[in-house]
Amino acid sequence: MKIKPNRNTSSSEYTQDSWGRPMSPPLTHSQEPSYELPIFDTAEDEIKASWRSLFEFTTRQHTASLIFAGAATIGGGVLRPVGAIFFGNIFSVLANFGNGSLDGRDTLHQISTWCLALTILGIVAWLLEGLFLASWMAFGELQAKSVRDQMFTGLLEKDMVWYDLRKDGIASLMIRIQTQVRELQLAVSQPLGFMFFEVVGSSAALGTAFYYSWQLTLVIIATFPVAAGVLYLISLNLGPSVEAQKEELTRASKYANTAITAISTVKAFNGQDHEVWQYYSTVKRAAVFYLRQARANAMQFGIVKFLMVGIFVQGFWYGLTLVNKGLDPGHVLTTFYACLSAMQGVEIVLPQWLVLTKGMSAGATLKSIMHQVERGRKVTNMNGSLEPISCQGDIEIDNVSFAYPSNPRQIILSNATLFFPAGEITFVVGKSGSGKSTIGNLLMKYYEPLSGHILVDGHQIQTIDTNWLRNNVFLVQQSSVLFNESVLQNIAFGTLDHTTPTDITRACVMAGLEATIEELPEGLDTIVGPNGREMSGGQKQRISIARARLRDAPILILDESTSALDHTSRSSVMEAIRRWREGKTTIIITHDISQILDEDYVYVVDEGMVVQEGYRKKLTQKSHGTFAMFASSQSTDEDTPYSSPRRKSEPNSATFSEFSNSSGEESPSQTRSISKFFGMTSNVQTHTSTAMNIRSGNRMSLGVASAYANDLRTDNIWSSPIISDQSHFHIKSPSLPIPEDSSWQPHQLPSVKLPSRRGSRQKSITSISETATTSPKMPWSRPETLTIDTALAQSHSDIPIKQAEAAPLPEYKGKPEKLKFIMKPSSLNEIFRTIWPILLFNGRIILIIGFIAAFVDAAATPAFAFVFAKLLNVFYVTENQAAEARKWALSLLGIAVIDGVACYVTHFALEYCGESWVNSLRVEAFKRILNQPRSWFDKERNSAGRLNDCLDRNAEEMRNLIGRFAGVTFTVAWMLGISIVWSFLLSWRLTLVALGCAPVMYGITRIFNWASSTWENKCNEVADVAGSIFVETFANIRVVRALTLEGYFHQKHTKAAADIYLTGLSRATYSGLLYGLTDSASFFVTALIFYYGAVLISSGQHSVGTVIQIVNLLLFGIANSTALLALIPQINSSRTTATYMLYLVKLPYRASHEAHGKTRLATPLPIKFTSLSFTYLSRPHIRTLSDITLNLKANSCTAVVGPSGCGKSTLASLLLGLYPPDRPSIPGPVPSLTFNETSILDCNINSLRSSISIVSQTAVLFPTTIYENIIYGLHERSPYNNILAAKSVAMDVGIHDFIASLPLGYNTQIGEGGQGLSGGQAQRITIARALIRRPKILILDEATSALDNESAKGIRETVRKIQRRANLGEGMAILIISHDIEMMRIAEKVVVLEAGKMVEMGSFEELRTKGKAFQRLTEGGFVDRRNREDESKQDKERFMTPVRATRREEWGRGGSV
């Protein structure tokens, strides 16, 4: 074997047992393990935002880019004082002409020379400023790429404990990380570049001012230190407010993400209003913190604006004194212009200050995560160094105790000891929450045990290399996870090295995927969608099993891996697994004991302890043992014994009264009855025991992953409707004539053709590399092959039963064309027109005040230019100089005060209105999203990730349109207008010459705007791709780790990040060059104005004072206009994000079929299906249901059964009004679906849903307390909306004792980021949610699939008591959708569906003896397979591998055998 240097030595001392195994002292329940891993919170990491935070992800490789950007910044910044020098020299020439020192000809010649210099300066500015902006935008892209790469790599190294301890769950963390990356990128590109640019420019300008007159400069900037101190004190409040706002927005994202992913549950329980109110309350709290930021930023603006004007008052007096002492007036003007240029730099930076502050916060937040990654527990801490040459397959779990880090007080495994010998199949059974799945998690090294030891082939699991272990131990979980790849690629993920088409074929056949692949439009090349949303639960489990077959690991762990399959499919798959795994170590974790044979060895786990072990035959003979109780609870529940021919050794019947603790073992008690809740009395005796203290078993992801499992039907809006003769594909047996020598890797699959069962047609399996590197080619439609399906049954007296056959479908004749959802960015006019209608009265008043103040601010600039020109005239007037100076200086001081106040009011008022506007849009968009029909969510463009990203990041960016940009644009527009009119009144000739440049300036600006917008869209598209990879990887990190796909997804994400970077570089190049051209154009216009002004002066048409006034008016107007150009890239970014938000806000609120009905029914019963058919809009050529005629009456219990994909769940969706039935081709007098003689199209859907409760196979829990989850959807005035009702129903479903054992009881947070629950515990809470409403119609859609047999028996007893209560006058109809035979037995009628049609109906006993389809469906539950082998085989000696060569009977605690 190969030994690496051990990086994880331990100093712990262990004792040894008689076999030489290391032992640890037992862990009692009182011992509380501690975890020192911090919950995700930047405050806990004590990392404060600072300027350094912007460069936290800058590496040595970025030095060259940063140096180049710095050089371009310095080059562009020094141009500002050069321009001020040129302006000063021009003013000196004009002053000399005014005092008679120069004649007109010399004046025109000298000014022409300086205008030529200005033109050359403009050309240089074009080049340098273009390079400046391009280099900083490229640096921003480089930083974003660095963050993405480092974050992805770092998160891949974290162990599962870190993920479990995230305060708000993984989904919201992923969203916030992407938002923080975006904010950091925005900050370190244009804003940071402009800040450095202005710092350089201001420094150079001040240096120039000192050169020309250091005395005057010192007087002017004397107040700068005081102003800087005030600005700093104001900025201290920004950081905490940014962090608090970020925390609230993270919480809002979590709420929105859960609601959208669990939209079916939200609609079924009328939870839209609750979700909207919860979301609204959270964003309202976030708004409070944002307004604090806005107030501080507005104060900064006001102070700077006041100083910009006020400094000239104090400097003017001293400047006049210096002129009288002989200083050149041109030098005084140069000093003024240089100081003004320096102050303008501060004004330009201030709008970017909040962006920079958020960027610093984002950098600190991202770095805090990286700090946790770097200093916390990593995967490498659990990674040993041992890589054995081979894996024999022995597994020993010795005295292992464990508690999940999210709930360290609750011991999941307590001194558990199990042995899984090489080459054998071993079963682990137990109740939900007993700790079964935890065994698989520990064997995969997701966690480390608190005590005890796990050995693989005699080696401590901690010493074994993790990758080697996961390559040799394969785990298939119940919630099978598929990635957004083709079916072929998802299967090929199972391989470690090269594989062949024969291997793929063999794996598909073993998993029973032939029919599924044949029906998929693109065969194996069909993209399954995010998280496998294009596949049903059963199909996903089959693909996972095929993946496991391809891996063919020495050790296989199957954790409820066939629970979504019907009995026939489950039996056939299990038989295939037994044949495949013969002679290989296999651990099957289940609560379904029907597949356990007499010769199989079984461990029974309860309360985290092994309470019984042995071969099935001997365990069954112990009638009072825990396993016997499981067996009896599965066999029958009927009062009249029903003898199953499956097992001869099982007792004929069993009741709870037959079990006691006489055997010395713990016996789980009967689940509490529903009698108290429904006001019934019961004669059934109940017993309690310690077994009812249900403890958390496998920590399941109850947020994104489980919620996605509900979205089983989606269609990709980006797909192409390609239908051809080759659109169906079928894999036959492994004997297909495939070249055996073809060897291929999972990510480079050659194109091979396999014959189809439908004749000579062939379907090409295209290269997976093509699928991965090109745009996804999603199917136009697919067959409805769902596992978790529902169908409705009725009385069988008047229903024509037809044999199953393919429903005739209309041929799809559409032309193949590429459909792409392209959303053209909205114009600013369209966006701004939405503001006024949304704002309330107070908001409108504030908006008006804000724009009035902006107008005052705009008027202040030309007023300043006029007064400043008058001040300059004082320098060369000889009469009343002091009086004139005093008059205009005081006027300038008044303008400074008014301008400062107006600036503060403008910024705060518009930020306030922007926040109100965005929050209203957020809530309105969220409300409209939740009110869209269920089919709307099936489209890829409406995925939860994209919608949540819009509500989060898009909203934050679009607020800038009014908060940061609208006021500036409005001010500049009025400023230019006033300046032009004023100038026109003074000299129409000079003004017209200046306006002649306007078309050219406008054209350049439009080109710049178009290029910036176009490339912004392209960058957003590639960023969405990388974001989806990021979320998919870490939302399914367990599966990524189990399949050792870290390298694959790292490579995939690296390529996507590189695509973003290259696209960003192209955007930077175009934007930089066009920005430089646009900004430098102001130099050309200025040169033209000065030249023509000199012509007018030299010709005597205007005085020097008039021309100076006009030049000042136009120059200040042009300067402010060019400052606006710097915001164009950011404006386009905000405009692009606003477009999608407005699309959501404008979604039709009542266009859905759910909003058409008005009739409110006192009772929805009876329900009638009359020749009902249904076809999903996303799959128009595949009819899911055909000609269903069925009645559901009050006081009835109907079971709908059928193979996976027959359309059962679709019926439940139709009952809930999630989809409307098809319109009949020939309209008849009776609607296809009626409730109490009223068509569903006429029913008020919300009222109808209040009478219906559904329990789905996949439990969906919301991120709130247990109590809030139980009462979810109840009206606040409902009599059942109280804690007593919640406790009562929790007792009835057997979850109250577990809840009471939690430290916070019913106030315990669950769901995303909360307390982890086992599948059974989560399912009980959802059952309680369904029952507390006292529905008229109760739909149980595989409600017991996640429960152990005893708990399932309790649920069945509950259903029976509900039936009895209904018969006493409650008028309830119960619809059972199940693969469980015992659930079928309690129904009065059983309806069998095949291929979307009803084929049989009758009582359970009738169908069992006469129903051929029913017999085919349920034979897996009745056939006795134990006689396949001689029972004496179980008594032969079973040896371990040569590691120890110990018989199982002699190992450990085999006394139960």
Q: What does the model show?
A:
- The structure is a single chain.
- This protein has a six-stranded mixed sheet with strand order 10-11-12-7-13-14, sandwiched between helices.
- α6 packs antiparallel against α12.
- By secondary structure, it is α/β, with parallel strands linked by helices.
- The two termini are 35 Å apart.
Please outline the helices and strands:
Layout: E1 2-3, E2 15-16, E3 22-23, H1 63-77, H2 79-98, H3 104-156, H4 160-164, H5 169-188, H6 190-212, H7 214-220, H8 224-235, H9 238-261, H10 263-268, H11 272-324, H12 329-375, E4 386-387, E5 395-402, E6 413-420, E7 425-430, H13 436-443, E8 451-456, E9 459-460, H14 466-472, E10 473-476, H15 487-492, H16 501-510, H17 514-519, H18 537-551, E11 555-559, H19 567-580, E12 585-590, E13 601-606, E14 609-615, H20 616-621, H21 626-635, H22 704-708, E15 752-755, E16 762-765, H23 768-773, H24 828-832, H25 835-838, H26 841-873, H27 881-930, H28 944-958, H29 960-986, H30 988-995, H31 998-1035, H32 1037-1042, H33 1046-1098, H34 1104-1125, H35 1128-1145, E17 1167-1175, E18 1183-1192, E19 1196-1201, H36 1208-1215, E20 1233-1235, E21 1238-1239, H37 1245-1249, E22 1252-1255, H38 1266-1270, H39 1283-1292, H40 1296-1301, H41 1319-1331, E23 1337-1341, H42 1349-1370, E24 1373-1377, H43 1381-1385, E25 1389-1394, E26 1397-1402, H44 1404-1410, H45 1412-1422
Parallel strand pairs: 7-12, 7-13, 10-11, 11-12, 19-24, 19-25, 22-23, 23-24
Antiparallel strand pairs: 1-4, 2-3, 5-6, 5-8, 8-9, 13-14, 15-16, 17-18, 17-20, 20-21, 25-26
